[in-house]
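#structure-requests
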Amino acid sequence: MVFTVSAQNKETIQDGTPEQRAKIQTEWMKTNLALSAVQTEQVYNLNLQYAQKNAFILQSKDRKLSKYKKLKALQQEKSASFPQILDTEQYKKYQELKEQMLKAIKERRK
């Protein structure tokens, strides 16, 4: 299963508020990982926290490479929080889907 984004959602992800980005990410996770109501709320709060941190970095005057390194570090930090929210199967599926998305992105760049 590969994560696909409609043109409208792609614009919202790129140009939207942190709240909009967190909502889209959470809805995707809710659908693909069958999150419970409690998990959905926890995931949204985590996604929002990191969307706000990302927005700060993206708006900074740092160079692209510096931004990339900071964003990557935040993504790793965020991913490390998911085992406390997701059960073992959900986390395994999350990792698999994340790998598929990364492969798809790399393929598009070729």
